[in-house]
């Protein structure tokens, strides 16, 4: 019996964001935008969905008078990501 | 990149792999601090030896090492500005930062203890020993062999220092900083430029 793939993660942009964040301690929104080649609007929506799911933490602050958004994976996000990769591996073993 | 498009398990794994590579490929070490400390120690060692050999200054010659305070001040300024500029924080940089912090603390303590209880020749032997530790560890963490070789060189020179117990012991610092910091510093700078142009 296959595990169902987490619908939050099984979306190209959200998975790209999680894969980026899983490899670093934290990253600015602009860094994620640059690496995923996504538009700011689209990325904002997907980041919000990941935040609502509790997979990432979004920190909004001001740096040199400019707003700065930083994202980092939560322990729950790490668990979900690991479960997603395990489920993928299960699919690929067939 | 579409957010709703469904894709296969193979495509998912390929995407994960590519994003992890993108996050890790950005080479964050540009060698500035290695070059700063390499050249400062190089200069201090040459001046110290020169003053001891060609002048009557004696112990006062060691005051040239106060130059390192300027290097420390610049290092502090550099780290603060780099942290402000950084768009991403990764675990590797954090661990390397701790390794060098431990080195700085140990160097400070060893200098204090040996200057009170030991001889200055012993101090130089320990300095060489301590230079090797963070250099080798950073090389291992970054998988950058020139730093590992530099670390090994420092340890070898530390052993050599047992047999060079005159003022010439100061000169051992020159090959140590050339091999451990200056050459790796330039190599890191070249690698950083390539990584950011590529």
Order of helices and strands of chain A: HEHHEEH
Low-confidence sequence ranges of chain A: none
User: Roughly what fraction of the amino acids of chain B lie in strands?
Assistant: under 5%
Global geometry of chain B: elongated
Percent strand of chain A: 15-25%
**In DSSP terms, counting alpha (H) and pi (I) runs of 4 or more, how many helices of chain A?**
4
Mean pLDDT of chain A: 91
Task: Provide the low-confidence segments of chain B as ranges.
Answer: none
Strand order of the largest sheet of chain A: 1-3-2
Structural class of chain A: alpha+beta
Could you state the oligomeric state of the chains shown? heterodimer
User: What is the CATH class name of chain A?
Assistant: Mainly Alpha
CATH topology of chain A: the name is Arc Repressor Mutant, subunit A
Helix content of chain B: over 70%
Span from first to last CA of chain A?
11 Å
User: How does the major sheet of chain B shape up?
Assistant: none
Describe the sheet with the most strands of chain A: 3 strands, antiparallel
Count of separate structural domains of chain A: 1
CATH superfamily of chain A: Winged helix-like DNA-binding domain superfamily/Winged helix DNA-binding domain
CATH architecture annotation name of chain A: Orthogonal Bundle
């Amino acid at each position: 019996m296959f595990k169902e793939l987490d619908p939050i993660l099984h979306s190209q942009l959200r998975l790209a964001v999680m894969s980026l964040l899983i490899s670093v301690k934290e990253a600015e929104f602009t860094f994620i935008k640059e690496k995923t080649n996504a538009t700011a609007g689209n990325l904002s929506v997907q980041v919000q969905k990941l935040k609502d799911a509790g997979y990432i933490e979004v920190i909004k602050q001001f740096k040199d008078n400019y707003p700065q958004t930083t994202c980092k994976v939560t322990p729950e996000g790490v668990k979900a990501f690991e479960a997603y990769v395990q489920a993928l591996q299960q699919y690929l073993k067939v | 990149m579409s957010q709703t498009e469904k894709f296969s398990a193979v495509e998912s794994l390929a995407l994960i792999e590519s994003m992890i590579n993108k996050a890790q490929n950005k080479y964050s070490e540009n060698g500035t601090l290695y070059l700063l400390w390499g050249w400062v120690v190089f200069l201090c060692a040459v001046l110290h030896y020169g003053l001891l050999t060609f002048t009557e200054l004696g112990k006062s010659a060691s005051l040239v090492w106060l130059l390192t305070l300027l290097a420390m001040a610049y290092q502090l300024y550099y780290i603060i500005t780099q942290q402000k500029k950084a768009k991403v924080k990764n675990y590797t940089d954090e661990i390397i930062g701790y390794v060098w912090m431990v080195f700085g603390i140990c160097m400070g303590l060893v200098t204090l203890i040996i200057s009170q209880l030991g001889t200055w020749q012993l101090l130089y032997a320990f300095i060489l020993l301590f230079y090797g530790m963070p250099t080798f560890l950073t090389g291992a963490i970054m998988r950058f062999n020139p730093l590992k070789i530099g670390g090994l060189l420092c340890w070898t020179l530390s052993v050599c220092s047992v047999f060079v117990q005159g003022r010439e012991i100061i000169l051992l610092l020159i090959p140590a900083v050339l091999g451990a910091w200056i050459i790796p510093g330039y190599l890191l700078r070249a690698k950083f430029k390539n990584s950011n142009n590529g």
